[in-house]
């Protein structure tokens, strides 16, 4: 077996229009495609017979190397999960930025809820980087990450 790369990450959302607006209008992602998902193969993939999905695919840039898939279950809805980052099964998506403080201030001014102000990484593999966690409208953990400055050898 050889896994080559990540194709996409998928988030199940409660309001797909609100989530599209958040990722597209606030975070600057590009909406690649929106579609209804009712094909039989989807029922097999997700494990819910007769599933009906509202689906959206977003990316940064034109290459579509990595997609964010938003799914709204029109059939088979479930209850929201607890969103604490310490809970097994929780996940987060990290976005690289050039200036974490500027991005933090811009998003906070637009009402985005942050877990913390940007903090400098003081140890480990990312020493010198800066990071801040924030939440999307469904409570998914997202991270702004400004890599450490590169040093010349």
- Oligomeric state as shown: single chain
Summed up, the helix count is: 3
The percent of residues in helical segments reads 10-25%
The gross shape turns out to be globular
Radius of gyration: 17 Å
Q: How would you state the average pLDDT, rounded?
A: 92
In sequence order, what are the helices and strands, one letter per element? EHEHEEEHEEE
Q: Mind describing the biggest β-sheet?
A: 4 strands, mixed
End-to-end separation: 37 Å
The count of strands amounts to 8
Percent strand equals 25-35%
SS content category: alpha/beta
- Poorly predicted parts: none
- The neighbouring-strand order within the major sheet is 1-4-3-2
Structure summary:
The protein is built from 3 helices and 8 strands. The chain has helices at residues 16-26, 40-46, 100-109, and strands spanning 8-12, 30-37, 53-59, 67-73, 92-96, 119-120, 130-135, 141-146. By secondary structure, it is α/β, with parallel strands linked by helices.
How would you portray this structure in words?
It contains three helices and eight strands; from the N terminus they run E-H-E-H-E-E-E-H-E-E-E. The chain is of the alpha/beta class. The strands form two sheets. Strands 1-4-3-2 form a four-stranded mixed β-sheet, covered by helices on one side. The protein is globular and about 55 Å long. The model has no long low-confidence stretch (mean pLDDT 92).
Task: Detail the topology: elements first, then pairings.
Elements: E1 8-12, H1 16-26, E2 30-37, H2 40-46, E3 53-59, E4 67-73, E5 92-96, H3 100-109, E6 119-120, E7 130-135, E8 141-146
Parallel strand pairs: 1-4, 5-8
Antiparallel strand pairs: 2-3, 3-4, 6-7, 7-8
């Amino acid at each position: 077996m050889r896994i080559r790369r990540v194709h996409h990450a998928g988030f199940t959302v409660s309001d797909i229009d609100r989530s599209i607006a958040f990722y597209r209008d606030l975070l600057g992602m590009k909406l690649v495609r929106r579609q209804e998902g009712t094909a039989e193969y989807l029922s097999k993939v997700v494990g819910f017979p007769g599933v009906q999905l509202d689906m959206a695919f977003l990316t940064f840039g034109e290459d579509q190397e990595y997609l964010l898939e938003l799914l709204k279950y029109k059939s088979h809805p479930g209850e929201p999960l607890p969103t604490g980052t310490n809970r097994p099964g929780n996940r987060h998506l990290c976005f690289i930025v050039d200036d974490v403080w500027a991005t933090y201030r811009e998003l906070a001014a637009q009402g985005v809820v942050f877990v913390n102000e940007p903090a400098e990484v003081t140890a480990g593999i990312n020493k010198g980087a800066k990071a801040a966690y924030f939440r999307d409208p469904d409570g998914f953990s997202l991270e702004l990450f400004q890599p450490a400055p590169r040093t010349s050898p």
